[in-house]
Structure formats: structure tokens, C-alpha cells
């Protein structure tokens, strides 16, 4: 017997405008007015900026102002570079590169919604018919489940920061949601057309972050087909169509790059080499990383998803559990087999977990739902209050201890009041109290009531951080000030600069200060920009090819928020 009994009153869907507005409230804060931050965000922007202002070779051989970066795939960088080309004159290069981030995010949310909607409309997912009628219609049931899946997805802690970065990881999670949707469509109606569209998703995912993840997810797709009455010859034909379309999409980059050899390089060899480095035998550190990070990364999706598997355990072969569970199993395997586990590897699990969690909500008891609501209200309201207190303290100096704690992370920073940021944060806070009042006073019976406060509260916290504390975070994580200091110390008619700085630093210095770094093919330069630790008092960090030569120190500096990192600019003595 199915574990679900649900009246039609519980399937009231969110208004389309409300769902769309919620998505924009989620993605826009943190993209507007933010500098490229250190590490992956700044490095990815550097590739996009180099492509947009470089030659055709930069589009085929991704690099950061001359530093080769052919590892993952160029699709996310192409999209950002196209945004700079189209909208850079209007929005500025940084914000224009993030136009693609908004588009990709919304496409991922839309794919997740439709994947859940299609699964929720199936007959095997429908709740039990009530004795006197009043059960929901399949379309209404599917819409409500889809709304719940989107709210759970937006409420996941692991998605918050990564979805606001201009990195391939942000695009990978959306392409995974698109492949999940195409998988649902294929298992609903196996056909050559649906197989080809699934191949399109596989190809786009391959161009985003390599072939290993899409190949494994394609295996998960065909693992789902064992529950279909499909002839073996048709399954082989469809598999061939997926591989052909996916390979054709990937070839749009690899074949021209191999034939034209940009900067005398062959991207295929470097790309394949990077892909093979993503696989290894599972080890204890990877297992420990998965469980230690996953507990909060997948919250609140994983408890509901686990409950869905338990609640539907007696229903053999229901596709609304089989399809997302297959994707989750492959995602877990990929994470455990990665030699250097990182949070970006966990993103592929978020879309299928959100779908499973939506079906898990169907059987959660009212007492558990109320407990989740009260926890969300208390914890998130407390977090918002703390943010407001620290913001007030850093501006006024009272309370003194809070002011010291807020400013000690950004030494040398002078906070100023921004009325625009203040009113946006105030409006978001008032909206939160309206949402809480609606939830507590009306006690709605709709299915998604259990997660609306979790996602709404997380959006509130993010808006507060990206308005009240955005200048602080920019000051702490941006290299703009250091770049301008270096530019002021460059000799007149300076030639190229050799350097050992990391990708994020190189991208920031090239963008903010237009530093003439040595190109991909290298060359002899008269300037050397050295990155090392402030604890070193000699030139031990100078690259071996530069030791023994005479260098004159022109400038030394660092970011005020970083107590160890140091940059030094040298000129060749001769």
C-alpha cells in the first residue's frame, strides 16, 4: 500500500511570480557590487576576462593572462566571456560575466522543477484515494511537489556560496539538474528524440567539468531503464544516440583546438590527463570528508531524502525514487573515488536529493514538521539578529566587544553607512517577519509549508551578509587594493612580468592593474612579481631559474586582512 494520504487542500501551488521572485532574491544578492574573491571565483573570472579581451586562441586554450588552465572544460568560461562581450560596456566586466551565472542558475532551478513535476504526475506517485473523494489531481500534486523540491534546493547550505561564484562547479550543478530532467523524460517515454536530448545534456556537462561525471550519470540513467519494458536493441540504439550527440557537443571544442593548436598547445592531451586524475580508489580521508562535510552541505535535503527511501521501501521500482536514487548513488561513488575531495564534488548530489526530499515530505508527521518550523524560526531569527547587532556595533562602536570582534577580521577597514544596503536589508528582515507570521497564524496545510521557512530564512541571512557586510568581505577577499599598489610602482614602459602568483592573484592583478604578465609561450622579462610568506626574510622563494641573479626590490606589500601572504616586485639589475 502507498504510504501517502493527502487531501486536495494540501496541494496548493506557489504562485509562479512568487517562485520566480524567490529565485531572483536568492541569486542576485552576492553578484551585484561584489569583487572577484580570492581562489576559484577570481580565477574563473580571469579566464573569462582573458577570453573576452584576447584572441581566438584564448577561447580554445583557456588561460589566465598567460597562465594555462585547460583542465576542466571551457563552457562556463565561454558563457562568462560572452556576457562580457555583450554587456561589459553597460554593466562592467565583473557583473557582465555573472549574467551567465544568473541564467545558468535559473535554468537549473527550472530543470529541477520540471523533473519533479513529471515524476509527481505519474500514477505510481499519486496518494491513496480518499473514501469520500477530495484527493488531489495529478497535475496539482506534481506542481506542489515541484514547488517543495525547489524550496528544499534553495534551502541547501552547500549550494549557497557555490551558486554565486563564476566557476564551472556552479554550472555543473545546473547541468546535472538538466540531465536529471532529461532522464525523467526518457524513462517516461523512451524514444530516439529523448535519447538525443539526454545526449545534449551529457555533452554540455562534459564541456563543463570533464567526461567522468556525465558518463557515470549516463550509467545511472540506463540503470533506471531496467524497470521499463524496453527491447534490448532499442536500449542499445538509444545509448548510441546519447553517446553520438554528447560526443558531437564535446567535439565542438576539442576538434578545432587540436587542429588549430592555440599557442602551440594540444588541449585534448591536457584535458584527458586532468580527467584521469579525478579517479582513485576510495580512501578513509575521502569517506571521512563525505560524512563530515555532507551533514551540513546537504541540509535540509538529506533527512527528508533518507525518509523517502524508507517510506517508499515497499513500493518496488517506483521511478520517483529509483531515478534520483540512482543519481545519488553515482554522485556518492564519484565523491568517494576523488583523490582530493572538495565541496565542489558534492554539488552533483543536490538536485536528486532535493527531488527525493520532496517525496519524503509526503509522509513526514505534522509534529516533525512543526519542530522543523520552530527550529528554523528560532535559529534563523537569532542569526539575523546577531548580524544586525554586529553591523550596528561596527558603525557606532557599541557594544564595544561586538565592535572589536567585527573589525578585528578586517584590520585597517573603515566602515561607512550605505543607505541603499540598509533599506534592502531592512526590507528583507520585514519580509521574514511577514513570512513567519503567515506560517504561524494560518497554519497552512500545503505540502511545502515544512521547508518554506528554511529556504526563506537562509535567503534572509544571505541578503543581510551581502548588503550590510559586503564592503567588509570585499576588503577581506579582494586583491584590488594590492593590484593598484603594484601598478603605481611599475617603471615607465614596463615590459612583461614573470611571476609565481596563484591563479586568483594573477587574474585580479591583470584585471585591476592591467599588469603585463608573460604569455603562455613565456619569454625573458625584466620584472619579477614574487608571492611568498611574510615569515621568510630572504629570497628562498625565488624560483630556481632566477637565483644567483641580481634583482632590485621595487615594492613590497600585502592585503591588510592577510597576515602571512606577501608580494614583492623586483627589477632585473642589468
Task: Provide a short characterization of the protein structure.
This protein is mainly alpha-helical and 574 residues long.
Give an overview of the whole structure.
One of its GO terms (cellular component) is plasma membrane. It is a multi-pass membrane protein. InterPro entries: LipidA_mod_glycosyltrf_83. This is Glycosyltransferase. There is one protein chain. The strands form two sheets. The protein has a four-stranded mixed sheet, covered by helices on one side. It is built from 24 helices and six strands. The model has no long low-confidence stretch (mean pLDDT about 90). It is globular, with a radius of gyration of 26 Å. By secondary structure, it is mainly alpha-helical. Strand 5 (about 550-555) and strand 6 form a beta hairpin. Helix content is about 60%, strand content about 5%. The chain has three domains: about 15-125 and about 135-360, no CATH class; about 365-475, no CATH class; about 480-570, no CATH class.
Total number of distinct structural domains: 3
Shape: globular
Structural class, from secondary structure content?
Answer: mainly alpha
Spatially, the strands of the biggest sheet line up as: 3-4-6-5
Percent strand equals 5-15%
Mean pLDDT: 88
Helix count? 24
What does the main sheet amount to? Answer: 4 strands, mixed
Q: Got a strand count?
A: 6
* CA-atom Rg in angstroms: 26 Å
Instruction: Give the end-to-end Cα distance, rounded to a whole number of Å.
Output: 85 Å
Helix content: 55-70%
pLDDT < 50 stretches: none
Helix-strand topology string = HHHEEHHHHHHHHHHHHHHHHHHHHEHEEE
Amino acid at each position: 500500500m502507498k504510504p501517502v494520504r493527502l487531501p486536495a487542500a494540501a496541494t496548493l501551488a506557489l504562485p509562479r511570480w512568487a517562485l520566480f521572485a524567490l529565485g531572483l532574491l536568492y541569486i542576485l544578492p552576492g553578484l551585484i557590487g561584489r569583487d572577484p574573491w580570492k581562489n576559484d571565483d577570481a580565477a574563473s573570472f580571469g579566464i573569462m576576462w582573458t577570453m573576452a579581451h584576447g584572441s581566438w586562441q584564448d577561447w580554445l586554450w583557456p588561460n589566465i593572462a598567460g597562465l594555462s588552465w585547460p583542465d576542466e572544460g571551457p563552457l562556463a568560461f565561454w558563457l562568462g566571456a560572452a556576457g562580457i562581450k555583450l554587456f561589459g560596456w553597460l554593466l562592467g566586466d565583473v557583473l557582465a560575466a555573472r549574467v551567465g551565472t544568473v541564467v545558468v542558475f535559473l535554468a537549473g532551478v527550472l530543470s529541477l522543477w520540471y523533473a519533479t513535476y513529471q515524476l509527481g504526475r505519474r500514477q505510481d506517485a499519486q496518494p491513496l484515494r480518499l473514501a469520500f473523494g477530495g484527493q488531489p489531481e495529478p497535475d496539482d500534486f506534481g506542481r506542489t511537489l515541484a514547488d517543495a523540491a525547489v524550496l528544499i534546493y534553495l534551502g541547501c547550505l552547500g549550494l549557497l556560496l557555490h551558486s554565486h561564484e563564476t566557476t564551472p562547479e556552479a554550472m555543473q550543478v545546473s547541468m546535472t539538474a538538466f540531465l536529471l530532467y532529461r532522464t525523467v523524460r526518457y524513462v517516461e517515454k523512451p524514444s530516439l528524440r529523448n535519447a538525443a536530448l539526454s545526449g545534449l545534456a551529457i555533452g554540455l556537462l562534459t564541456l563543463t567539468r570533464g567526461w567522468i561525471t556525465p558518463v557515470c550519470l549516463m550509467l545511472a540513467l540506463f540503470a533506471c531503464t531496467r524497470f521499463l519494458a524496453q527491447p534490448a536493441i532499442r536500449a542499445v540504439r538509444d545509448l548510441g544516440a546519447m553517446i553520438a550527440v554528447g560526443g558531437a557537443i564535446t567535439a565542438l571544442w576539442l576538434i578545432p583546438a587540436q587542429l588549430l593548436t592555440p599557442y602551440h598547445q594540444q588541449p585534448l592531451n591536457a584535458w584527458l590527463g586532468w580527467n584521469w586524475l579525478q579517479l582513485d580508489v576510495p580512501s578513509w580521508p575521502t569517506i571521512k570528508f563525505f560524512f563530515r562535510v555532507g551533514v551540513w552541505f546537504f541540509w535540509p535535503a538529506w533527512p527528508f531524502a533518507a525518509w523517502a527511501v524508507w517510506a517508499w521501501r515497499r513500493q518496488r521500482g517506483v521511478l520517483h525514487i529509483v531515478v534520483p536514487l540512482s543519481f545519488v548513488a553515482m554522485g556518492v561513488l564519484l565523491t568517494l573515488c576523488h583523490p582530493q575531495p572538495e565541496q565542489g564534488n558534492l554539488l552533483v548530489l543536490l538536485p536528486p536529493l532535493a527531488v527525493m526530499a520532496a517525496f519524503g515530505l509526503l509522509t513526514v508527521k505534522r509534529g516533525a514538521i512543526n519542530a522543523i518550523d520552530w527550529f528554523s524560526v528560532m535559529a534563523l531569527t537569532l542569526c539575523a539578529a546577531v548580524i544586525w547587532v554586529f553591523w550596528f556595533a561596527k558603525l557606532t562602536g557599541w557594544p564595544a566587544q561586538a565592535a572589536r570582534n567585527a573589525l578585528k577580521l578586517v584590520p585597517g577597514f573603515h566602515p561607512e553607512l550605505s543607505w541603499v544596503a540598509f533599506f534592502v536589508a531592512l526590507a528583507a528582515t520585514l519580509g521574514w517577519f511577514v513570512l513567519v507570521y503567515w506560517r504561524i497564524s494560518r497554519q497552512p496545510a500545503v505540502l511545502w509549508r515544512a521547508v518554506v521557512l528554511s529556504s526563506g530564512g537562509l535567503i534572509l541571512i544571505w541578503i543581510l551578509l551581502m548588503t550590510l557586510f559586503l564592503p567588509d568581505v570585499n576588503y577581506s577577499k579582494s586583491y584590488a587594493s594590492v593590484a593598484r599598489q603594484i601598478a603605481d610602482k611599475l617603471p615607465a614602459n614596463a615590459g612583461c612580468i614573470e611571476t609565481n602568483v596563484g591563479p586568483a592573484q594573477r587574474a585580479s592583478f591583470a584585471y585591476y592593474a592591467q599588469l603585463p604578465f608573460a604569455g603562455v609561450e613565456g619569454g625573458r622579462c625584466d620584472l619579477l612579481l614574487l608571492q611568498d610568506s611574510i615569515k621568510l626574510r630572504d629570497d628562498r622563494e625565488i624560483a630556481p631559474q632566477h637565483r644567483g641573479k641580481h634583482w632590485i626590490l621595487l615594492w613590497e606589500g600585502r592585503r591588510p586582512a592577510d597576515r602571512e601572504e606577501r608580494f614583492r616586485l623586483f627589477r632585473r639589475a642589468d
